[in-house]
Every structure is written in structure tokens, then in C-alpha cells.
From TrEMBL:
Its EC number is 6.3.4.-. This is tRNA(Met) cytidine acetate ligase. Its main location: cytoplasm. It comes from Metaplanococcus flavidus. HAMAP family: TmcAL. The keyword Transferase does not apply. It is an enzyme of class 6 (ligase). The gene is tmcAL.
Length: 399
């Protein structure tokens, strides 16, 4: 059985994701589609709109055969580390190929860019360093360095686009671990990464869907952008919790954590740097809602995403010391499977190179304990009375 891998967040699973899943399977010629999916906290540094189990349900009902959790350390990391964790897991579970959506829509420019940056790595790293020293944000420094190194080159990827950037990092990660997986990309269609919902379109960005809901829309009103199983899962989640995950919902607990720890302790947490802990503390003292708080912290040097990742680590208590202690994923955490996915695991069990974990009780190393801890804090932020869902929820089976 041939497997293709995809890296996802499904926050929530919408029509664009359905197109990606179907196209990935078709373009790869695979029998099985395996998704590595972020858990309760996401790469942009925010709590998931719906928990990982509901998002797993959406995926399995819409063409994905296996869902594996991307551990917290990688799910909340900058693009290169996010990609490294995800690609390592797809390689370990035996995928023959991996497929990502991109604005580019053609794999050749990515391969050329990777070859070029490999050959000019010293210059590229120096340009990044110089750009950061000039006071611009890390993403802007990467793009500036890339533009310098590729100046005059034809046929390279446009790394000013968010999905292209992530796609390049997937290829870079596969190259660095000497993976035999074949990289594939499909053209992203419909709304762009952060675009608001546009009337007349059936494909909207996950950001647009979330924003429309938080601005007063109902899940039912957003039905045309969601496959039917996603709509049902979100309605079920809303019925259980009465709301969806967001920093606005989590802010009272985040604010308490910030004020309790004080600046001297805040700087211990991963990604908190350059004195921003003082600004975070003062903003938390002054502001009673998250967006007002964030407006006081944002600057040209620190993007919203980077600040939110700092806040995620403050909320979960994830420190610089912990961040530096993890080198690579140590297990495959199974969140759900279809009948075909179960057959694949049975057929490939001798070829899978990391332990397959289906119970939280078996997550006994530091990486696994961190996932359990983060999940418990997500449930607490959602107002759940029972924080043991991590232990009481078996892998979802979609027969």
C-alpha cells in the first residue's frame, strides 16, 4: 500500500482542505492519505478553534485515512522546526510522498531554490543575520536574504507567499533527514491564507472562517465553506463547550499567568526575548481584553504570530531550557484512522521507524508528557470540567 503524507492544522477543516486531500491522493497515486496534524495549540501561536479530536473526526470523514499528532514542541514552532517535526513523522510512518498546497503550484521552483540556497548557504545565513541586526522581524529577514541570494536567478520559488514559505521548509526538512519521500505540490485555490470571506466563493481561508464566526456569524451561516461532516463536528463541539477556542476566551487565564510570573520569570519561557517580557507584563496589567493587550505589545520587530507563540509558551509554562532539549520526534501519536488506515498500519508495522502510541498513558518521555500537559491546559482554558479527556479518548475509528 502506497501512502502520501500531508501536514495540516484543520482549524477548521474546510472546502479548500477537502480539495487538498483529494488532490494529494490523486497526484501521488497513493492508496492511503496520512495527515500529521497539530494538536491543541497551533503554529501561529493560538489555541485551536476546536480540539484535536473534533478536527480528527472532520479529517477522517473527508478523505484522510490516518491522523497523527504533531507534538506541541513542533506544532508551535517557527516554520523550519514545524516542518522538520512534521516531515520526520511522515518519513517514519512510511510515506512514499508528501504533498503541500502552494501559491506556486509547481514543484520545480522549490527544488531549484533548495539547490541554490544549499550552494550559497554561508551567504544566505550572513544575509539573514545582517537583516535581523537591522531591526526587522525574522520572517522579513528571511525574505530579504532570499531576495538577495536569488537576485537574477530564474525559475526559483516566490518565498514571499506564506504557503510557498512553508512548502520550501518541508523540502528543506526532507533533504536534511535524507528522506526518500517524493515532494509534490498542488495549486492553492480560492481565498489566500489570511483573506476574509468573499461572497460568491465556496472556498474560504480558515482564518476568514474563524474571523467571520467571532465577528458574530454562526456556524450554520458558514456552512457553504465547510464539508457537511465539518459542520456537524463544529455544531457538536459548540454544543459541548458553548464556544470555540481563541485567545479572547483564554485571555483571563493567560493574564493571570503573566501577572503571577512577573517579568523576571517571564523571560524563562521559550521565544520570550530582548526585554519584551516587561512590555507583556505592563500590557497585561492595563488591558482587560486580548486584542487591546496585543496592540500594546506588537511592534515592527515582533510579528503578531511571534508574540502569540511567546504567549502560548507562557501559558503552558514551556521554557527555553525545554525547547533546547528536544532534537526530534520520538513517537507517532495516533489520533484516528479509517478502515483502510488500520490495514495500512497492520501491513507496515515492521517498517514504521518510531513507536506508535495510541494511549496517552504510554506517553512517558518528556516530549509526550509535555503534550499531555498542554492538552490539559487547553481543556482548562475551554472551561472543561474534566481535564482527563487526553486519557479517556481512544483513537477515533471511522469505519
Amino acid at each position: 500500500m502506497k501512502a502520501a503524507g500531508i501536514v495540516v492544522e484543520y482549524n477548521p477543516f474546510h472546502n479548500g482542505h477537502l480539495h487538498h486531500a483529494r488532490s494529494a491522493k490523486e497526484s501521488s497515486g497513493a492508496d492511503i492519505l496520512i495527515a500529521v496534524m497539530s494538536g491543541q495549540f497551533l503554529q501561529r501561536g493560538e489555541p485551536a478553534f476546536a480540539d484535536k479530536w473534533k478536527r480528527t473526526e472532520m479529517a477522517l470523514a473527508s478523505g484522510v485515512d490516518l491522523v497523527i499528532e504533531l507534538p506541541y514542541v513542533y506544532a508551535t514552532a517557527q516554520a523550519s522546526d514545524f516542518a522538520r517535526g512534521a516531515i520526520t513523522l511522515l518519513d517514519a510512518i512510511g510515506c512514499e510522498s508528501f504533498c503541500f498546497g502552494s501559491e506556486q503550484g509547481n514543484i520545480d521552483p522549490f527544488l531549484k531554490s533548495r539547490q541554490l540556497l544549499n550552494s550559497k548557504n554561508l551567504l544566505y545565513q550572513q544575509e539573514i543575520h545582517d537583516a535581523i541586526q537591522s531591526g526587522i522581524s525574522y520572517p522579513k529577514a528571511l525574505n530579504k536574504a532570499y531576495q538577495t541570494v536569488t537576485d537574477g536567478e530564474e525559475g526559483v520559488a516566490d518565498l514571499s507567499k506564506p504557503n510557498n514559505i512553508l512548502g520550501y521548509h518541508y523540502i528543506e526538512a526532507a533533504d536534511r533527514i535524507s528522506s526518500s519521500m517524493r515532494p509534490l505540490t498542488i495549486q492553492r485555490i480560492g481565498a489566500n491564507y489570511h483573506e476574509p470571506i468573499t461572497e460568491g466563493m465556496s472556498i474560504a481561508s480558515a482564518t476568514g472562517i474563524r474571523n467571520a464566526f467571532f465577528e458574530g456569524g454562526s456556524i450554520k451561516e458558514l456552512a457553504k465553506y465547510l464539508p457537511a461532516p465539518s459542520l456537524q463536528a463544529l455544531q457538536s463541539f459548540a454544543g459541548e463547550y458553548g464556544h470555540f477556542g481563541s485567545w479572547e476566551t483564554f485571555y483571563p487565564m493567560l493574564r493571570y499567568t503573566i501577572l503571577k510570573d512577573r517579568p523576571a520569570n517571564l523571560r524563562r519561557f521559550a521565544e520570550v526575548t530582548e526585554g519584551i517580557e516587561n512590555l507583556i507584563y505592563e500590557a497585561a496589567r492595563k488591558e482587560q481584553d486580548f486584542e487591546s493587550f496585543l496592540a500594546l505589545v506588537k511592534s515592527k520587530r515582533f510579528t503578531r504570530t511571534r508574540i502569540q507563540r511567546m504567549l502560548t509558551h507562557i501559558y503552558t509554562g514551556f521554557t527555553w531550557e525545554q525547547l533546547k532539549s528536544f532534537n526530534q520526534p520520538s513517537y507517532l501519536r495516533l489520533l484516528g484512522m479509517t478502515k483502510a488506515g488500520r490495514h495500512y498500519l497492520h501491513a507496515q508495522k515492521k517498517n514504521i521507524t518510531l513507536p506508535m502510541i495510541s494511549r496517552a498513558a504510554d506517553l512517558t518521555d518528556d516530549l509526550g508528557k509535555l503534550d499531555i500537559h498542554a492538552s490539559s491546559l487547553y481543556m482548562l482554558g475551554m472551561g472543561a470540567g474534566n481535564l482527563k479527556k487526553e486519557f479517556t479518548t481512544p483513537p477515533i475509528y471511522f469505519g
